[in-house]
Structures are given as structure tokens and as C-alpha cells.
Design goal:
Radius of gyration: 24 Å
Protein name: TrbC/VIRB2 family protein
InterPro entries: T4SS_pilin
Distance between the termini: 78 Å
Transmembrane segments: 39-63, 83-105, 117-139
Keywords: Membrane, Transmembrane, Transmembrane helix
């Protein structure tokens, strides 16, 4: 009898020929680690290609004359802190989102629950990134008054 594939939201569809050979008998954590390593290899190859292109295409570099620091006031320092904090929080939240995605799609019930926690952490991180400018502004006003 022929099985008709159905759309299953939030769950993995079974493989048409049973469990794939590359994950047969592996626990979910090992499959997740295998996916992560495969992704790291792809990014490593891409980073190597970009670095090689930049090295080949780069011209001669000459040292520039020293310049005076561009930050001259406390307000500029506070703005720089705000931007760095925003970037770090957004990067961490994105990392949590990616890890949560891999865990959620692993199919193992324990990993799915950990994926949901990672999604929650990503949401909290994005909320922190949105509130960081406000908190730094309040702290800066407190410092300058």
C-alpha cells in the first residue's frame, strides 16, 4: 500500500525508506552533533574561500598617519557602549535561536523541550537587545546629571 505524505507541523515526517543510513542507531544528540559539524565544515570552506579571495585581491597596505581619537565626550562613549551591547545581545539571541532550531527539529522529545527553552531564551535576548538602548540612555543621564 502506498503511503501519502502529509504535512506535519512541528514534527518530522518519517523517512520514506525507514531511518536514513547515516543516522541509523544514533541517539538524537549524536545526530545533532553530526549536523552541527557538517554545518561547521561548510562555513569553514566558505571562510577559507573568502579569505583566499581577499588575500589575492588585496593590494599593498600603507600605514596611515596617526589621528586624534574620535571620541571626545562622555555621550559618544555611552553611544558606543549602547551599540556594542545591542550587537552582543542580538548575536547571542541569534545563536540561541539557531541552537533551538536544531534541537527542535531533532525529533527526540527531550531535545524538542530543550529547543523550546532555547527559543524562549532567544526571545528574552531579543527583548534585552531592544531594551538595551533605553537602559544605557537612563544610565548615561544618571551619570551626566
Amino acid at each position: 500500500m502506498l503511503e501519502v505524505p502529509t504535512l506535519m507541523i512541528g514534527k518530522l515526517r518519517p523517512h520514506p525508506r525507514g531511518e536514513p543510513a547515516h543516522s541509523r542507531g544514533r541517539p538524537a544528540a549524536a545526530r545533532l552533533a553530526h549536523r552541527a559539524l557538517r554545518l561547521l565544515r561548510v562555513f569553514g570552506v566558505l571562510a577559507t574561500a573568502v579569505a583566499a579571495t581577499l588575500l589575492v585581491a588585496a593590494g599593498s597596505a600603507y600605514a596611515a598617519e596617526p589621528v586624534e581619537p574620535t571620541v571626545t565626550s562622555l555621550d559618544q562613549v555611552i553611544d558606543n557602549i549602547r551599540l556594542w551591547l545591542l550587537g552582543i545581545l542580538a548575536a547571542w539571541a541569534t545563536f540561541c535561536l539557531v541552537v533551538g532550531f536544531f534541537r527542535y527539529t531533532s525529533g527526540d522529545q527531550d531535545e524538542v523541550e530543550k529547543g523550546k527553552v532555547a527559543f524562549r531564551s532567544a526571545g528574552i535576548g531579543y527583548a534585552g537587545a531592544l531594551l538595551a538602548p533605553l537602559l544605557v540612555t537612563i544610565f548615561g543621564e544618571w551619570l551626566t546629571s
